[in-house]
Amino acid sequence: KNITQLGAHPGDNAQVRHVTDIRVHSGYDTESSDNDVALLRLDATWYFSDYVHPICIPNITFEEVTLNFSHCFISGWGSTYYGGSGVNRLREAEVELIDQRTCNLINWYSGMITENMICAGLESGGVDSCQGDSGGPLQCYSEDQGRFYQLGVTSFGYECGLPFKPGVYSRISMFSEWIKKTQERSASEKSSQSQVLVILSAGVVLLQIRQ
């Protein structure tokens, strides 16, 4: 069975849960990575602790502007350089949000970035998600609300940390209605089971299934 770990840091803090159901977005395109989002149902709830916290998601794209995000972070267990191996300790890095118009410039991603995607990194490169980080969060702090929001899910990039090639993330605000409807449908179908759902990259989910 597929499993997921919450709060997996060195020590006895991890909460292990089995995945009982997987919902991949019906519009997921394996070539363009558009609509690269999926939901996992877990067999039991988790317990909030110093290592496990809930996070808010923006309901509409407009909130990405009005919530006044100041600092954005990515995290994961992936390699620290292109072609490298994963790490055994969760790592994080601070990145900057990059607007769609800039990210679609010819020397950047040349029109590949859809409205369902968001770019984050540095124009000069050097800070990026990498192989093994797919499915991880892009989270930003709202000065106005005093809390973090998950803006994206790590989707793809060109190698790692190159100039003009920031990481590309599935834009959560574009999927808020899909997430809500999927939760409601899932709850009505299996009301007796746990309704805990986790947001993940569809590409990662399908890769794990094929393996």
From TrEMBL:
Keywords on record: Disulfide bond, Hydrolase, Protease, Serine protease
InterPro entries per record: Peptidase_S1_PA, Peptidase_S1_PA_chymotrypsin, Peptidase_S1A, Trypsin_dom, TRYPSIN_SER
Keyword field contains S-adenosyl-L-methionine: no
The reaction(s) this protein catalyses: Preferential cleavage: Arg-|-Xaa, Lys-|-Xaa
EC number assigned by the record: 3.4.21.10
Name this polypeptide is given: Acrosin
Molecular function via GO: serine-type endopeptidase activity
Annotated Peptidase S1 domain residues: 1-184
Swiss-Prot/TrEMBL GO biological process terms: proteolysis
Family note: Belongs to the peptidase S1 family. CLIP subfamily.
PROSITE patterns attached to this UniProt entry: TRYPSIN_DOM, TRYPSIN_SER
Entry superkingdom: Eukaryota
Coiled-coil residue spans: none
Annotated Pfam families: Trypsin (PF00089)
